[in-house]
Amino acid sequence: MTVTSAGLLLYRLDGTRGLEVWIAHMGGPFWARKENRAWSIPKGEYAPDEDPFVAAKREFAEEMGTPPPEADYVGLGDFRQPSGKIVTVFAGEADFRPERIVSNTFPLEWPKGSGILRDFPEIDRAEWVPEAEARERLVKGQVPVLDALLRRLGS
């Protein structure tokens, strides 16, 4: 059975920096010292009977600690990841400025083999990034999302 995930890609058009997107650095020890290919759009898995847009908004709120901003969201499509997971992405133009990021957490045995379970945030930080820079930071399977956004914006 294919794993499905849904996410929101916020974007804004800045007069000096051009197109910027809101992306998040993945939390936990594996990603701690990585920058390139260690970022993601806010997203998460959903059940087969769940509406992907509803799931995308829920996952955004869980990872950011605040509901997604009001926007005219549009579907960018479904994107198959190297793992086989399908990510459904919705984009919306908004100037999102949360006071802080408070992500939900996941348990992980750390250090590995220690028998000690620790909680780590799914996301440890998020920020606005110029589109060209996002191409370097995003995990490889999500780069096509940027292409879809550019097509949608007519760039």
Taking the sheet with the most strands, its summary is: 7 strands, mixed
- Which CATH architecture? Alpha-Beta Complex
**The CATH top-level class label:** Alpha Beta
Mean pLDDT: 96
Number of strands: 9
Summarize the structure.
The chain has 155 residues and is an alpha+beta fold. It has 3 helices and 9 strands; from the N terminus they run ββββαβββββαα. Strands 1, 2, 3, 4, 5, 6 and 9 form a 7-stranded mixed β-sheet that branches. A two-stranded antiparallel ribbon has the order 7-8.
Can you walk me through this structure?
This protein is of the alpha+beta class. The protein has one domain (4-153): Nucleoside Triphosphate Pyrophosphohydrolase, CATH 3.90.79. Helix content is 20%, strand content 37%. The chain is built from three helices and nine strands. It has helices at 52-64, 131-137, 143-153, and strands spanning 4-14, 18-26, 39-40, 43-45, 74-80, 86-93, 105-109, 117-121, 123-130. The strands form two sheets. Strands 1, 2, 3, 4, 5, 6 and 9 form a seven-stranded mixed beta sheet that branches. A two-stranded antiparallel sheet has the order 7-8. It is globular and about 50 Å long. The relative contact order is 0.27.
